[in-house]
Queue: 2 jobs
Job 1
Amino acid sequence: QVYGTDLKNRIDEKSPLSPETQYARTKKDAEISILKLISNKNLRGTILRLGNVVGQKIESNLTSLQKLTFV
């Protein structure tokens, strides 16, 4: 979501960020904060932008969370 929704080409970690929702903007802001902290404190770190897994018989994140809630 941090890349926006107008995705005509493939995206990678060098693609410009263009968040369109408040949720996506907070993810971008969190990444910037982490990168600043890593830089200022001379730390090492990695930011992962994991996509949702889709396909046959794949449960959504919401379904997984619901199962955890009702255990």
Job 2
Amino acid sequence: AKEMVKRVAGTNGVKVNILDIDEIEGMAQAQFYSVMGTPTTVVVDDEKSEVASWRAQIPDEAELSNVISAR
């Protein structure tokens, strides 16, 4: 899932942050975006507001690409 997200984001020229919830910073970000488990993908805009998310599932590559390119 991580590699697919990186690939789709890179194709669309978008920065990707992969968080490790075992680290303090990753845990804090997970709490901010209400991440309760993995896998989770959260797409945010330039103001860090959530645009779309997939919790406890891996996003479909085409759907993720559409969300990223539309933001």
